[in-house]
């Protein structure tokens, strides 16, 4: 029997950013303002329980190493969840429900969703969300919480994925300012009804949801934005820019 958690508001931080590089090496990451904000959304516990999930990259050890390096010397209680070739914890549900923040790395959102459903993590993550665990992530780790969005999971030509966990009833676009093909595809998918109203992020931007309501847009650098894309009366996509709030510690 799991202990009863003190239930916090259900939060998701869906981003095109998170950990940041350092000059020390490729996977010597640091905690960027978006990571710090995820912990803040969890109530800033003195010893935050933070779990890194690298399913989208096939549980590549470099991602896990980067996450652990970013928290080295801190009071955080960092863990990771591997699903290849078998789960690395005896009870995946119990482990995830015990976290303050679960952070999902980037990679293939299509493969991530397939593997998660094999392990019934679609059900587990909904339970985590409903019990106040902050769910966050970058790229694939952003799209997964939504209905879907443009992805390169299937090859170099972007295609839609539409079987996301749909905790959030919207489409999602990522890397909006750095991968030029993503914007027009998201517009087409919203215009033809493949995706519902959608929210997209430039690199360094995060969408904060309380329940299913977008309540804040934050950024770790200036000059970037989020976007709402919806179907207009004439059937064409209409895009509205949303200016983010610059987080403490953001680049200037």
Describe, in plain words, how this protein is organized in 3D.
The chain is an alpha/beta fold and about 250 residues long. The protein has a single domain, classed as 3-Layer(aba) Sandwich (Rossmann fold). About 25% of the residues lie in helices and about 30% in strands. The strands form four sheets. Strands 5-4-6-7-1-12-13-16 form an eight-stranded mixed β-sheet, sandwiched between helices. Strands 10-11-14-15 form a four-stranded mixed β-sheet, covered by helices on one side. A hairpin with a 5-residue loop joins strand 14 and strand 15. The chain is globular, with a radius of gyration of 17 Å. It starts with 10 loop residues before the first strand and ends in a 6-residue tail after the last strand. The model is unreliable at about 1-5 (pLDDT under 50).
